[in-house]
Design brief:
490 residues, alpha+beta, Beta-Lactamase, Heat Shock Protein 90, 3 domains, five-stranded antiparallel β-sheet, 11 helices, rod-shaped
Length: 490
Amino acid sequence: MIKKGIGRQIVMHYFIVIFLALMLVEVVFLFAIRAYYYDTIYNSISSHIDVTVRSALISTSAGDYGEMEYLSQILALLKLPEAELQILNGKGEILISSSGFPSDKLVQTSDIPQALASGSTSKWIGRQATTGEPVMAVTTTLQPGGGQVYLARFVTSIEKVNQRLTEITLVSMAIIAAILVIVLIVSIGLANSIVRPINNIIAVSAQMAKGRFDVRVEGDYRYELGEMGSTLNYMAEEIVRSNQIKDDFISSISHELRTPLTSIKGWSETLDSGGYDPDETRIGMGIISKETERLIGLVEELLDFSKLQQNEMKLTMAHVELKELLKEIVLNVWAKAELKKVQLRLDADGDSFPVYGDANRLKQVFLNIVDNAIKFSHESSVIVLHVVREDGWVRTAVQDSGIGIDEENLKRVKDRFFQVNTQGGGTGLGLAITQQLVELHEGELNMTSELGVGTTVSVKLPLLEEESKSREEISGEKSSDQESSDTESI
């Protein structure tokens, strides 16, 4: 017995479909073979009638004999082996029979009125009223010399034919049963080939649900099952990687929080003890203020990431002049760039680059990108900020010639909590937040990098629609003016 589940459903569906198809074929086959046997008997008697009736009517004449003698002559001419021949009058009374047994009963089967009505041969299949034997009766009309109408009725037993049909039916049913057994075996094997890997995948997923992400779906499964197993394995790998990144993040953020807190606590206790001159006090307060700002930055970064993850980040959208925004950013990071002797250069291909966005969040985006470029650039290098228009877009590319990123890390650098250099500090959320902020502005962020050569971070933002339309109108007016001047010159 197959237990409940998809395996039983597969077996039952296959079995039912094949069973119904075989039953349909069986019914059609039995009807066809039955019709073949019965038609063979009928055609044999009909052929005999066609050949003998005309010659019998020609060779005998009712006027030369008495009625019974004439009918005896007809009976002798028409009789057929293995069939009883009955001569009847128009009322259905048997006048004479080749069996020699008289009968006073009227024949009331359907072949009699059909033959009288059509004047041709008719057929009836049924059981003899006296013996109950299955028979076929073939009846035709006899009208010698246009006189009284008689009926020649051939009655033959079809019991042997029915027995043969029963044997054929039993054999065909046995064949169907054998086919169904084979179908059952094959469908069980097919169901197992589907259910076994599903059970394996279920077992593996159950272990993963308990926290065992080291297990994998084994086996080279095909089609959707193979895709399901590969997806489950990939999910486990991603969970392991995410857990590792999370652990690294916790370790990193713990260090990042401990360092400023230790400095703040140490200088607070030192200043609280008193006895320090104003210069030392000023240095201590400066360190406390700097570390406090650092802590605030870390906390704000975590809060921003949390808001983005929960779709709670609200933007204050307005007209933003991107070129002016980038100038402010260059001024903000100038001091940090000077410490590494890094030169910042803004290369803007045009005067105006209007976009629709949140100025503060866009400033956060580009500050993070430029700050990373400075952090990973070599001393005395150049960072270039390219700004160009591209078919309704404004593309800003921050290009440095720093240490670069290898291909493997470049694919993951925008993942949350991921850091190429875990010793460099930070939360590993900067680029993840930057990516989501750019997407909130319906833009695109792309990175290209080569290890030891440098990195280019490109941000594409939609050009303000009003500006685009006005430029198109101006361009159209210029074209119209040019056409007008050309016409006048002609």
